[in-house]
Write the structure tokens for this entry.
Amino acid sequence: MPERCTCGATLPEDALFCHRCGKPQREILAAEPEPAPIAPPPLPAAPAPAPIGFHNGPAVRIALVAGIIAIVVLMITGQIAILQMLFPFWLIAAGFFAAYLYGRRTGQRLTPLSGAHIGWMAGIFGFVIMTLFLTAMAIALSEPSAVTMLREQWTGAGRTDADFNLMVDALHSPSKIAAVLSVVLLLFSVLPAFGGALGAKFLDRADMVRRD
């Protein structure tokens, strides 16, 4: 039997409203709102790069390697008179190598200041190695047999005996040793730091060229 509205109008099957008077015929359930989409958790922020210093393991290892290489190169080139003038260049190259290698190994973008810092670290390691070498030489020169052997090596490399005597006198004088170490510390601090700043600048430009 067809349904009728109170107004007497015959309603079609499943009608929600009367087509004549507009009276609702059934309760209309309010549509439940759809749940808001759950936002994904924010990605963890990338950790800040470790500052370059003696608490930074990769920086310490790279600076130590650069310092050792610088000392080895200086000892080798020191045997050749014409290459002795390149002493400042090798120290600058040590700082440059340290900054360049650190940037490549870690992917960290180095500023000239941070490059100078790791270059300075390489110079400090080189200075420590040089100090140990001079200390060992000063101890060895207290033995006459060692003095004779070193004198033969010195003169065999084309150097004069007078220069050897000056070196021996300097190593036997604490004040002269302190003066020499002060100059060496200055050179091993400034020149590698300058090279490290150059290395950071070169690495930054190389990355810009690669991106272009």
